[in-house]
Specification:
Shape: globular
Strand content: 5-15%
Distance between the termini: 24 Å
Largest sheet: 2 strands, antiparallel
Order of helices and strands: HHEEHHEHEH
Strand order of the largest sheet: 1-2
Helix content: 40-55%
Structural class: mainly alpha
Length: 121
């Protein structure tokens, strides 16, 4: 199924609603296993999680992969990128992008969920 439909958590669902509220040209998914995925890319379910990525200590390499994949897809001098994720995952990506927002950085998961629920729940 398309990547935008594959993920089922409330956090993802709310984040997807947030992204769609901007009526963007493209929505990309940050996948622990695949890196950057276009939202319409058809995917098979997989088991790698962001928690496992963090435990393996691979977040910096993963973030670098995301940035390289994004540069190949988007002219980052023309577009603003909104990175929805908590500090551990969003900050290393946003720090490398010229026009990036990471609105959930600085929040823990309960705070981020409340922020998203208030706007899109």
């Amino acid at each position: 199924m398309p990547a935008l439909e594959l993920y089922r958590s409330e956090f993802f669902r709310l984040g997807r609603s947030h992204a769609q509220s901007f009526e963007p040209e493209k929505i990309y998914i940050l996948s622990a296993e695949h890196g950057l995925l276009p939202g319409d890319q058809v995917m098979e379910p997989y088991t790698m999680t962001m928690s496992a990525l963090a435990k393996a200590g691979d977040v910096e390499a993963w973030a670098q992969l995301i940035v390289e994949q994004l540069k190949a897809q988007v002219d980052l001098t023309k577009y603003e990128v909104i990175v929805l994720g908590l500090r551990k995952f969003a900050q290393p990506i946003a720090d490398q992008l010229p026009h990036a927002q990471a609105p959930l950085v600085g929040m823990n998961m309960p705070q981020a969920m409340n922020y998203l629920r208030e706007r899109f729940g």
